[in-house]
Amino acid sequence: DLVRFVRLQEVAERARRHLVSAPEDAAAWYWQAYALGRYSQGISVAKALAQGLGTKVKVALETTIKLAPKHADAHIALGAFHAEVIDKVGSLLGKTQGASKATGLALYQQALKLTPASAISAMTTVAISVTATRRALSWPNTGRRSNGTSMCTSA
Predict the structure, then answer these.
(1) Stretch (H or E) spanning 78
(2) Of 150, 73, 155, 57, the residue nearest 114 (C-alpha)
(3) HSE-up of residue 139 (Cα within 13 Å, Cβ side)
(4) What is the pLDDT of residues 30-63, one digit of tens each?
(5) d(CA 54, CA 123)
C-alpha cells in the first residue's frame, strides 16, 4: 500500500505542476482529482477531509466539468464524492464540505445521460433503482433474509 500511496501522490503532484502551465487541461484536473481521491480513500475519508483533500478533489472535479461538460467520468466521480462524504460524515457535516445528496444524484443522472450504454451507467441505474424501490416500499436495508440469516453467508 505504501508504494500505491506514493504513486498516487506523484500523479497528483505531476498534474498540479502541469496545471501551472496548462490550467485549461481538463484531463489534468481529472487525474489530479482521481489520484487525490484514491489516496484519500486509502487514508480514510474523514482524515482526508481534515487535511483539506476533499476540497481539492471537489474543486478539481468541478473544474474538469466546467472545462469539459461532457466528461461523464468526472460527473460520476463528483457524484461519488458527494455520496462518500455524506456516507462517512453524515449530511450535516457533509454540508461543510459542500456535499449534498441532491447534487450527488443530479451528477449521477447527468452521467447516465452522457453515457447511457456504459457499464458504470448500468450499475448506477441499478443502484438508483434498488434504492428508490427500497424507499418506496419501506424495505429495510439490513442485508438479512426473511429468516434472519445474513445474505452474505449460506442459509
Answers:
(1) helix 72-96
(2) 73
(3) 13
(4) 999 999 999 998 998 889 989 999 999 999 999 9
(5) 25
